[in-house]
Amino acid sequence: MGSWPALARPRGNITGLTFLGPELASKRLDLLKQALPNASRIAALYHPGAFSDRTVRDMLQTTEAAARTLAVELQLVEVQAPDELDRAFSTMTRERADALLVFASAMLFNERKQIVDLATKHRLPSMSNARKFAELGGLIAYGASLTDLQRRSAIYVDKILKGAKPADLPVEQPTKFGMVVNLKTARALGLTVPDKLLVAADEVIE
């Protein structure tokens, strides 16, 4: 994440759209705590190589700060490859995690079915960044609208093909976000999702 001036005038030959990784990671933790007010220990599954060292560090630090504010203990669980997921969930269970926060990562997204299946097996309510996790059985998903980002990316490509210089195009941040709550999963876990979250949700899976 750069500073606001850098986003407005990125310089060089790069522009595009940010995904607000650090900011949304802490927001997801807050929403998960709202859904599970009695949760005191939350496991955070992350892939260190998902983004630049700075972005991953910012995501971890921002989430750790949010955890302190929410008075929850954050259990960071690192995975480098899909074959480490079984071990990761065994660690969460052994250390008595109450819930699971899945950080943004292409690798973790590709392994979403395995992650949801393992969360179900270990009875861990989960929060992730993409609605497909919730569709598969995750409890909650919250993140920037990928459809909107793809549409806006196409606009950038069109401008550049018509002669615009990338350095003159500001890096834009997401403006549309969505939350999906899977009530079927909540019932299977014996959870009652607060009404304020259901009202705020863009989609509720029955």
Gist?
This protein is of the alpha/beta class. It has a single domain (4-147, 172-205), classed as 3-Layer(aba) Sandwich (Rossmann fold). 47% of the residues lie in helices and 16% in strands.
What's the layout of helices and strands?
Elements: H1 4-8, H2 21-35, E1 41-46, H3 53-70, E2 73-78, H4 85-94, E3 99-102, H5 106-110, H6 112-121, E4 126-128, H7 131-136, E5 140-144, H8 146-161, E6 177-182, H9 183-188, H10 195-200, E7 203-205
Parallel strand pairs: 1-2, 1-3, 3-4, 4-5, 6-7
Antiparallel strand pairs: 5-6
Helix pairs in contact: 2-3
Low-pLDDT parts are 1-10
For the record, what CATH class applies? Alpha Beta
If classified by CATH, what would the architecture be? 3-Layer(aba) Sandwich
Structural class: alpha/beta
Tally of separate domains = 1
CATH superfamily caption: Response regulator
Distance between the termini: 37 Å
* Residue fraction in strands: 15-25%
Q: Name the overall outline.
A: globular
Strand arrangement, largest sheet?
A: 2-1-3-4-5-6-7
Describe this structure in words.
The chain is of the alpha/beta class and 206 residues long. The chain has one domain (4-147, 172-205): Response regulator (Rossmann fold). 47% of the residues lie in helices and 16% in strands. The protein is built from ten helices and seven strands. The protein has helices at 4-8, 21-35, 53-70, 85-94, 106-110, 112-121, 131-136, 146-161, 183-188, 195-200; strands at residues 41-46, 73-78, 99-102, 126-128, 140-144, 177-182, 203-205. The protein has a seven-stranded mixed β-sheet, with helices on both faces. Strand 1, helix 3 (53-70) and strand 2 form a beta-alpha-beta unit. The longest helix is centred in the first third of the chain and has 18 residues, at 53-70. Mean pLDDT is 83; it is low at 1-10.
